[in-house]
Write a structure and sequence with these properties.
Elements: H1 2-83
Length: 84
């Protein structure tokens, strides 16, 4: 009887050992995937910052062009007034 009980316990322990190993393997895969995601997020953050910087430059260019257009309008208005 004791021997049978010990075998049952041993069988259960072996099963638990297998489950623990499977959990460890799964945890390793999750940690690996998380590491990859963190790397990707870092690159995405850099890309977003680059885009923000580029948009800032575009905005400066738009303001410059707007100022140039306004200056041209003023010149045209002066020419129109001068010719009248």
């Amino acid at each position: 009887m004791e021997e049978e009980l010990l075998r049952q316990i041993l069988t259960q322990l072996q099963g638990l050992t297998s489950e623990v190993q499977a959990i460890k393997d799964s945890q390793g895969r999750v940690e690996s995937a998380l590491s990859i995601l963190q790397y990707d997020v870092g690159h995405l953050e850099k890309d977003v910052n680059d885009i923000k910087r580029d948009l800032g430059h575009v905005w400066i260019d738009i303001k410059h062009l707007d100022n140039c257009l306004e200056a041209q309008r003023e010149k045209v208005d002066k020419l129109i007034l001068y010719k009248k």
